[in-house]
Amino acid sequence: xxxxxxxxxxxxxxxxxxxxxxxxxxxxxxxxxxxxxxxxxxxxxxxxxxxxxxxxxxxxxxxxxxxxxxxxxxxxxxxxxxxxxxxxxxxxxxxxxxxxxxxxxxxxxxxxxxxxxxxxxxxxxxxxxxxxxxxxxxxxxxxxxxxxxxxxxxxxxxxxxxxxxxxxxxxxxxxxx
Length: 177
Known about the structure:
Elements: H1 13-39, E1 61-62, E2 66-72, E3 82-91, E4 99-101, H2 103-107, E5 114-116, E6 124-126, E7 129-132, E8 137-143, H3 146-152, E9 157-164, E10 169-175
């Protein structure tokens, strides 16, 4: 008994050419659609979220002896990190900061005071402050001096300001516990 095998012929060149052109058009449409959807690049104002660095300070709190600074960097240029060179805390009713941490103080922060959320993208101390790479999230515990504790005593809220080496500043109002 002989089994007849079905022989397949290679796709003809014309059919293969039509399929290739069809796949090219679909791929091009998807690419342009994603560009328009994500960045408004074809029609509308082009938006590039990676142009300027950004820090999010949600979750930051002030306890009696410590500023618990929670930093998260959702976007910005990924070729380098944010370089935080100054952190200030001041009561909402005060005109001068209660505490200022400059580049030397931030660079000297003990690594055990930095609690990173993720294993790969870590906030670290650098020679001029904190280095916050793209997608890094951490809580940094900064000790308050006795004079800062006295200035913040009786305050219900404080304003925390974080400054980048480029001069950009991010500010949040946080509860004082």
